[in-house]
Amino acid sequence: MSVPSHQLPLHDADAARDADQALREHADLARHWHLADLFADDPERFQRLSLSACGLLADFSKQRLDPATLDKLRGLATARGLDAWMRCLFEGGEVNWTEGRAAMHWRLREPGRAEGEDDPVRDQLARMERMVTRILSGQWRGCEGDAITDVVNMGVGGSDLGPLMASVALHEHQPDRGKRPRLHFVSSMDGSQIAPLLDELNPATTLIVLSSKSFTTVDTLSNAATARYWLEQAFPDRNGAVLRCHFIGVSAMPERMSEWGIHDDNQLLFWEWVGGRYSLWSTIGLPIALTIGMEGFRELLTGAHDLDRHFREAPWEANLPVLMGLIDVWNLNYLDITARAVLPYDGRLKHWPAYVEQLEMESNGKSVDRGGELVDYHTCPVIWGEVGPNAQHAFYQLLHQGTQPVACEFIAAARHGRNGNSAELQPLEEQHTLTLANCLAQSRLLALGDRALEEGGDTPAYKRYRGNQPSTTLLMDELTPYHLGALVALYEHKVFVQAVLWGINPFDQWGVEMGKKIAKDMIRVLENGEGSDGLDASTRALAGYVRQQQT
Ligand code: F6P
């Protein structure tokens, strides 16, 4: 099924040049458009420029574009071979050509194959389900025979951000709230997360999940070593029981897990063809399953699978990931808007910005194209974000009256869908409406400026709002596992669409690899000064200062 990298689709360079030129000319006009005029000129603008699929409504009408812009962008996508690249992705081609790998995260959410047929994905999910059942039912025991009260996920990047984001977002969907083990996440290598946690936890009732695709990431392994030390101090001489009862490993590298000491029965696998930042659908999603149960986890997969089908089947005019990808390209490469703010109006999505930052910037922060040439255009914008209502009191001033254009992305759930004890609290429903009112008001003000308020005239310049900040609003009908699955898959595919247009590989991260390597060399410099002569003057002096302070 694998398509070797030398058979990857090519693009039509001449057609791409023409499409790019047409977009540049179009952008020369569009740069003078104001969103307030676009709305005034076309009462049907929302109908023309909004779209829904899989329980998500996307409103692109507050973007600085018109239907002709989208036609031209689709022309560029055709010339760049998007169709063939999509086929290649879903046929398991080596779309990650610098590592000679497929990228088949979509395969993880396909319905399982029939019993009897070979299906490693289904088998690992079943293995994960057995563990989830044992942990949640209290059958999984610590080495003293106690049921587990606390599960700590240790991982970083894709082995942390996806499970963390989704577990927090879906916290209210726990089937039996309050009765489950508490879930904790430790990612940072500096010990600042694990130290206070170990102070609180009871080693007898704590289960550690070591999540690392490579099982070589120093951040995770250093936290793991500390946790192992803590447990072995608490329970000395237990003849392997500490490792067997208190550690689960999740990785694509079973031999490395075994070498570290993870018991065979406690190993969950996934595969090289699942990128770290695309892995929450795999056994890396164990913390999510512990939060919402396996039924909830399967709903998450279904939402993502439905979005996969939408991406594969919907015509580009009505294709959410394609349109989102094209619009980001328009903002960055044609309107020169180099920053994007991600603004969830829902505290349950508080880790969404960090998740998207990794997904997009680690995927598309690249500058070499498929031909090995440096690109002469921007790829991925700078992305940052925060829960919207808090951001209003932090950086919105810059969005409203600063000097830089920023594309904004508003995300909210139309219905809160509250359950549990708080479902009875009417004021909470009002708070949800208040939050949505803020979301809609902010995107309106950013788009229209003070023309939204019909103020102007004598208003002093420092009180004026220029507006014209473009935004997309994404409304989920409700924040359920299904909707979150669809939302995440939408972003994953959007990132792919952009990468095809930019001609880059979104599935490698060589820049990060180099950072990991040179940090290792620096440890020796700090420990004993070894190798400091070869350093630049700044790093040498800083290392010297640290050593002096530590002695
Ligand atoms: O940040 C680099 C990276 O390789 C990410 O792509 C990955 O998600 C993270 O490190 C963690 O890697 P691992 O799961 O192998 O520990």
From TrEMBL:
Pathway: Carbohydrate degradation; glycolysis; D-glyceraldehyde 3-phosphate and glycerone phosphate from D-glucose: step 2/4; Carbohydrate biosynthesis; gluconeogenesis. The active site is at 362 (proton donor), 393, 516. Keywords: Cytoplasm, Gluconeogenesis, Glycolysis, Isomerase. Coiled coil: none annotated. Its EC number is 5.3.1.9. The keyword Repeat does not apply. Signal peptide: none annotated. It catalyses: alpha-D-glucose 6-phosphate = beta-D-fructose 6-phosphate. Pfam families: PGI. SUPFAM superfamilies: SIS domain (SSF53697). PROSITE patterns: P_GLUCOSE_ISOMERASE_1, P_GLUCOSE_ISOMERASE_2, P_GLUCOSE_ISOMERASE_3. CDD domains: SIS_PGI_1, SIS_PGI_2. One of its GO terms (molecular function) is isomerase activity. InterPro entries: G6P_Isomerase, G6P_Isomerase_C, Phosphoglucose_isomerase_CS, SIS_dom_sf, SIS_PGI_1, SIS_PGI_2. Belongs to the GPI family. This is Glucose-6-phosphate isomerase.
